[in-house]
Amino acid sequence: MSEQNQNEAAQQEGAQFNIQRIYTKDVSFETPNSPAIFQKEWTPEVKLDMDTRSAKLDNNVFEVVLALTVTATIGEETAFLCEIQQAGIFAIGDLEEVQMAHMLGAFCPNILFPYAREAVASLVNRGTFPQLNLAPVNFDALFAQYMQQRAAQSQEQAEQTADA
Protein backbone atom coordinates (compact mmCIF):
# COMPACT_ATOMS: atom_id res chain seq x y z
CA MET A 1 0.00 0.00 0.00
CA SER A 2 1.43 3.38 -0.94
CA GLU A 3 2.07 6.05 1.67
CA GLN A 4 -0.71 8.23 0.19
CA ASN A 5 -3.25 5.41 0.49
CA GLN A 6 -2.18 4.80 4.11
CA ASN A 7 -2.67 8.51 4.93
CA GLU A 8 -6.12 8.50 3.32
CA ALA A 9 -7.09 5.37 5.26
CA ALA A 10 -5.91 6.95 8.52
CA GLN A 11 -7.93 10.08 7.79
CA GLN A 12 -11.04 8.02 7.06
CA GLU A 13 -10.59 6.10 10.32
CA GLY A 14 -10.45 9.40 12.23
CA ALA A 15 -13.60 10.67 10.53
CA GLN A 16 -16.18 8.71 12.50
CA PHE A 17 -19.82 9.48 13.15
CA ASN A 18 -22.10 7.78 15.65
CA ILE A 19 -25.56 8.66 16.97
CA GLN A 20 -25.51 8.03 20.71
CA ARG A 21 -29.00 9.26 21.56
CA ILE A 22 -31.93 11.20 20.10
CA TYR A 23 -34.40 12.72 22.53
CA THR A 24 -36.97 15.44 23.09
CA LYS A 25 -35.39 18.09 25.30
CA ASP A 26 -38.38 20.42 25.64
CA VAL A 27 -41.93 20.52 24.30
CA SER A 28 -44.82 22.97 24.61
CA PHE A 29 -48.23 23.19 22.98
CA GLU A 30 -50.62 26.07 23.62
CA THR A 31 -54.10 26.92 22.33
CA PRO A 32 -54.59 30.34 23.89
CA ASN A 33 -57.88 31.10 22.13
CA SER A 34 -59.67 27.80 22.57
CA PRO A 35 -62.48 26.90 22.47
CA ALA A 36 -63.53 30.00 20.47
CA ILE A 37 -60.89 29.32 17.78
CA PHE A 38 -62.63 26.04 16.90
CA GLN A 39 -65.73 28.00 15.80
CA LYS A 40 -63.79 29.92 13.12
CA GLU A 41 -63.25 28.85 9.52
CA TRP A 42 -59.92 27.01 9.36
CA THR A 43 -57.82 29.23 7.10
CA PRO A 44 -54.63 29.56 9.14
CA GLU A 45 -51.37 31.27 8.42
CA VAL A 46 -48.65 28.91 9.62
CA LYS A 47 -45.23 30.26 10.52
CA LEU A 48 -42.17 28.09 11.21
CA ASP A 49 -39.12 29.40 13.06
CA MET A 50 -36.04 27.21 13.37
CA ASP A 51 -32.81 27.42 15.26
CA THR A 52 -29.94 25.05 15.91
CA ARG A 53 -27.27 25.08 18.53
CA SER A 54 -24.56 22.70 19.60
CA ALA A 55 -22.42 22.14 22.65
CA LYS A 56 -19.33 20.05 23.17
CA LEU A 57 -19.99 17.48 25.90
CA ASP A 58 -16.74 15.57 25.83
CA ASN A 59 -13.85 14.89 23.50
CA ASN A 60 -15.51 14.36 20.08
CA VAL A 61 -19.01 14.16 21.66
CA PHE A 62 -21.54 16.89 20.93
CA GLU A 63 -25.14 17.71 21.76
CA VAL A 64 -27.05 19.27 18.87
CA VAL A 65 -30.46 20.86 19.52
CA LEU A 66 -32.94 21.67 16.78
CA ALA A 67 -35.57 24.11 18.06
CA LEU A 68 -38.81 24.50 16.10
CA THR A 69 -41.59 26.98 16.82
CA VAL A 70 -44.76 26.58 14.78
CA THR A 71 -47.40 29.29 15.11
CA ALA A 72 -50.80 29.06 13.43
CA THR A 73 -52.93 32.19 13.36
CA ILE A 74 -56.37 33.00 12.01
CA GLY A 75 -56.51 36.71 11.46
CA GLU A 76 -55.07 38.29 14.61
CA GLU A 77 -55.81 35.30 16.86
CA THR A 78 -53.36 32.52 17.63
CA ALA A 79 -54.89 29.11 16.98
CA PHE A 80 -51.91 27.22 18.41
CA LEU A 81 -48.28 27.61 19.31
CA CYS A 82 -46.11 24.50 19.23
CA GLU A 83 -42.51 24.58 20.42
CA ILE A 84 -40.16 21.63 20.43
CA GLN A 85 -36.49 21.17 21.07
CA GLN A 86 -35.35 17.91 19.50
CA ALA A 87 -31.85 16.98 20.56
CA GLY A 88 -29.23 14.39 19.86
CA ILE A 89 -25.89 13.32 21.21
CA PHE A 90 -23.41 12.59 18.45
CA ALA A 91 -19.88 11.20 18.53
CA ILE A 92 -17.99 12.83 15.70
CA GLY A 93 -14.40 11.85 14.98
CA ASP A 94 -11.60 14.21 14.12
CA LEU A 95 -12.69 16.56 11.35
CA GLU A 96 -11.38 19.82 10.04
CA GLU A 97 -13.10 22.93 11.42
CA VAL A 98 -15.22 23.56 8.31
CA GLN A 99 -16.31 19.91 8.12
CA MET A 100 -17.15 19.88 11.83
CA ALA A 101 -19.21 23.06 11.46
CA HIS A 102 -21.12 21.45 8.59
CA MET A 103 -21.75 18.29 10.62
CA LEU A 104 -23.08 20.27 13.61
CA GLY A 105 -24.93 22.91 11.60
CA ALA A 106 -26.48 20.83 8.80
CA PHE A 107 -25.91 17.07 8.95
CA CYS A 108 -27.04 16.52 12.56
CA PRO A 109 -30.10 18.83 12.30
CA ASN A 110 -31.06 16.92 9.16
CA ILE A 111 -31.12 13.73 11.25
CA LEU A 112 -33.14 15.40 14.03
CA PHE A 113 -35.76 17.07 11.80
CA PRO A 114 -37.94 13.99 11.10
CA TYR A 115 -38.28 13.39 14.85
CA ALA A 116 -39.22 17.03 15.48
CA ARG A 117 -41.60 16.98 12.53
CA GLU A 118 -43.38 13.90 13.89
CA ALA A 119 -43.63 15.45 17.38
CA VAL A 120 -45.17 18.64 15.95
CA ALA A 121 -47.68 16.63 13.89
CA SER A 122 -48.64 14.57 16.93
CA LEU A 123 -49.12 17.61 19.17
CA VAL A 124 -51.22 19.43 16.57
CA ASN A 125 -53.33 16.29 16.16
CA ARG A 126 -53.83 16.01 19.93
CA GLY A 127 -54.99 19.61 19.93
CA THR A 128 -57.72 18.42 17.49
CA PHE A 129 -56.50 20.69 14.70
CA PRO A 130 -56.29 19.50 11.09
CA GLN A 131 -53.18 17.52 10.20
CA LEU A 132 -50.01 19.55 9.84
CA ASN A 133 -47.03 18.10 8.00
CA LEU A 134 -44.01 20.36 7.89
CA ALA A 135 -42.25 20.49 4.54
CA PRO A 136 -38.75 19.03 4.35
CA VAL A 137 -35.93 21.47 5.09
CA ASN A 138 -32.68 21.69 3.17
CA PHE A 139 -30.24 22.19 6.04
CA ASP A 140 -27.26 22.09 3.67
CA ALA A 141 -28.61 25.11 1.78
CA LEU A 142 -29.40 26.95 5.03
CA PHE A 143 -25.89 26.23 6.32
CA ALA A 144 -24.32 27.43 3.06
CA GLN A 145 -26.38 30.64 3.26
CA TYR A 146 -25.27 31.14 6.88
CA MET A 147 -21.61 30.66 5.93
CA GLN A 148 -21.96 33.17 3.06
CA GLN A 149 -23.47 35.72 5.46
CA ARG A 150 -20.61 35.18 7.92
CA ALA A 151 -18.03 35.58 5.15
CA ALA A 152 -19.68 38.80 3.96
CA GLN A 153 -19.76 40.18 7.52
CA SER A 154 -16.09 39.29 8.03
CA GLN A 155 -15.19 41.00 4.77
CA GLU A 156 -17.13 44.15 5.74
CA GLN A 157 -15.39 44.26 9.12
CA ALA A 158 -12.00 43.81 7.47
CA GLU A 159 -12.75 46.65 5.05
CA GLN A 160 -13.92 48.93 7.88
CA THR A 161 -10.78 48.13 9.89
CA ALA A 162 -8.58 48.84 6.85
CA ASP A 163 -10.32 52.17 6.23
CA ALA A 164 -9.90 53.30 9.85
Descriptive tags:
single chain, 164 residues, alpha+beta, 4-stranded antiparallel sheet, 3 helices, 4 strands, disordered N terminus
- Main sheet? 4 strands, antiparallel
Name the beta content range.
Answer: 35-45%
> For the terminal residues, how far apart are their CA atoms?
55 Å
Order of helices and strands: HEEEEHH
Give the integer mean of the pLDDT values: 89
Structural class: alpha+beta
Note the overall shape.
flat
- Total helix count? 3
Helix content: 40-55%
Radius of gyration: 21 Å
Query: How many β-strand stretches?
Result: 4
Q: Looking at the chains present, what oligomeric state does this protein adopt?
A: single chain
Cross-sheet strand order for the largest sheet: 1-4-3-2
Low-confidence stretches: 1-11
Write the layout of secondary structure elements.
Elements (H helix, E strand, L loop, with lengths): L2 H12 L2 E14 L14 E14 L2 E14 L2 E16 L4 H30 L12 H25 L1
Antiparallel strand pairs: 1-4, 2-3, 3-4
Written overview of the protein:
The protein is an alpha+beta fold and 164 residues long. Helices cover 41% and strands 35% of the residues. It is built from three helices and four strands. The protein has helices at 3-14, 97-126, 139-163, and strands spanning 17-30, 45-58, 61-74, 77-92. Strands 1-4-3-2 form a four-stranded antiparallel β-sheet. β2 (45-58) and β3 (61-74) form a beta hairpin. α2 packs across α3 (139-163). The longest helix has 30 residues, at 97-126. It is flat and about 60 Å long. It starts with a helix and ends with a helix. 18% of the residues are buried. Mean pLDDT is 89; it is low at 1-11.
